[in-house]
Amino acid sequence: QVHVVESGGGLVQPGGSLTLSCVASENIFRLYGLGWHRQAPGKEREWIGTIDSKGTTFYMNFATGRFSISRDNDWKTVYLQMNNLEREGPAVYYCMSGGCWGRGTQVTVSS
After folding, report:
1. DSSP letters of 35-55?
2. With bands split at pLDDT 50, 70 and 90, how would you rate the model's confidence at 18?
3. Is 32 helix (H, G, I), strand (E, B) or coil?
4. Could you tell me which residues come within 8 angstroms of residue 64 by beta carbon, excluding any fewer than 6 positions away?
5. What is the mean pLDDT of the chain?
6. What are phi and psi of 31, to 5 degrees?
7. Angle, vertex CA 22, rays to CA 44 and CA 36, nearest 5
8. What does each C-alpha distance from 25 to 7, 43, 48, 70, 96 come to in angstroms?
């Protein structure tokens, strides 16, 4: 069974930046690409953006210009760089690849 694990969450001040990472127990990112999602308390999980197997990235409107998805050269780690974290409330951020979801990492924006 493939495991996907997010890391890098935490407390960040309004206007600050944070980078999340996602790794998998097998090299599936190269095949399936990866999507980042988030879920705020009491809300539906929402898609943030995706990097496909060719390295092309796609983003929801709210993420365009502030969030950036990238990968390392070996496709072992995929990152979500988040800048100007001001409007976001607390949420759990998830990565998903090939149908495999991680358990998420909590991000809280607060002064």
Report:
1. EEEEE-TTS--EEEEEE-TTS
2. very high
3. helix
4. none
5. 94
6. -85, -45
7. 30
8. 14, 29, 23, 19, 13
